[in-house]
Specification:
- By secondary structure, the chain is an alpha+beta fold.
- It has 5 helices and 5 strands.
- A 5-stranded antiparallel β-sheet has the order 2-1-3-4-5.
- A hairpin with a 2-residue loop joins strand 3 and strand 4.
- Helix 1 crosses helix 2.
- The longest helix has 20 residues.
- The termini are far apart.
- Pfam families: S4.
Length: 128
């Protein structure tokens, strides 16, 4: 295989569930190819660096192999290699999110009728 479209490669590497989602991300400017915005039909080359958003994280990967067929996850991981900086950044951000979520405490239960009335009274006072 000599050339593969960017949207097909992202789909085959399992960064996106469908090619339509990959196309939407590329057209929206979310995916960068070698540090620049790319078009959906961009031909992917070995050694290229691609930045791909995945939920809260941004993956920066180097293309190792080309494929236009979607296969299992272990085979898809062989298509790219994540950069060490990207991996460290993702782990650091995940730890930061975990600590932020620990600081937030859920109320033990829903407010009862009396507490709801107090909350509504406080909210009405804030409007004045």
């Amino acid at each position: 295989m000599e050339t593969v479209r960017l949207d097909k490669w992202l789909w085959a590497a399992r960064f996106f569930k469908t090619r339509a989602l990959a196309k939407k991300a590329i057209d929206g400017g979310k995916v960068q190819y070698n540090g620049a915005k790319a078009k959906t039909s961009k031909a992917v080359e070995r050694g290229a660096r691609i930045k791909v958003p995945q939920g809260w994280d941004v993956w920066e990967v180097e293309v190792v192999a080309l494929s236009d067929q979607r296969r299992g996850a272990p085979e898809a991981r062989e298509l790219y290699r994540e950069t060490p900086e990207s991996q460290a950044r993702r782990e650091r951000e995940a730890e930061r999110r975990r600590l932020a979520n620990q600081a937030f405490q859920q109320p033990p239960r829903r407010p009862d009728k009396k507490q709801r009335r107090e909350l509504q009274r406080i909210q009405r006072q804030g409007e004045d």
